[in-house]
Amino acid sequence: MSSSDPGRPSVRRLFAAVLPPASAVAELRKALAPLRALPGAPDLRWTGPEGWHFTLAFYGEVPEDAAPELEARLERAARRSEPFALRVHGAGHFGGRALWAGAAGGLDTLRLLAERADAAARRTGLPMEEHRRYTPHLTLARSRGAADLRPFAAALAGFEGQRWEAAELTLVRSHLPVSGVPGEQPRYTAKRAWPLGG
């Protein structure tokens, strides 16, 4: 369903996330540079630093009229959650599909915030996927087919990013590629952000 279809309700593709600060992004960007020289690197679709985030809950296409309630519930979830220490840490992969960086620090608080962001959507009446244990990750690259991502994950496994304070819950809008240009990435814009602890 598209927001441009006449006669259909307007929708936006949304998710809740914790965004890393510019200093953490710069540090990770520097650590990734050597990975781009590894065999197979040109075949991967590398996500740009402007797209790096820790997704808490993915909502998909949210009807415009449901957004105010979702935002009110996310604001309450943020207010009930205290700021916490976080850092980008290590790496892993989801099969041969996606390479990611992990997280360390206040993971219990991060998981609780993810549960609250998920619950906010369910209470708003949005259809959500089956609830699974939250695995914090920041997607670095995707494969067009099945790729051996183990060398990339191994090269970044020892990465220990700087500690920073996660102090906001952000509602992000995802703009899917529309140009048809190969390799075009989704664009993300922060729609609203709420301070943790209120």
From TrEMBL:
Assigned keywords, A-Z: Hydrolase
InterPro entries per the UniProt record, alphabetical: Cyclic_Pdiesterase, RNA_CPDase
Active site as annotated: H53 (proton donor), H137 (proton acceptor)
Segments carrying motif HXTX 1: 53-56
Record-listed E.C. numbers: 3.1.4.58
HAMAP family from the UniProt entry: RNA_CPDase
Similarity comment: family membership: Belongs to the 2H phosphoesterase superfamily. ThpR family.
PANTHER family reported in the protein's UniProt record: RNA 2',3'-CYCLIC PHOSPHODIESTERASE (PTHR35561:SF1)
Name this polypeptide is given: RNA 2',3'-cyclic phosphodiesterase
Gene name, Swiss-Prot/TrEMBL: thpR
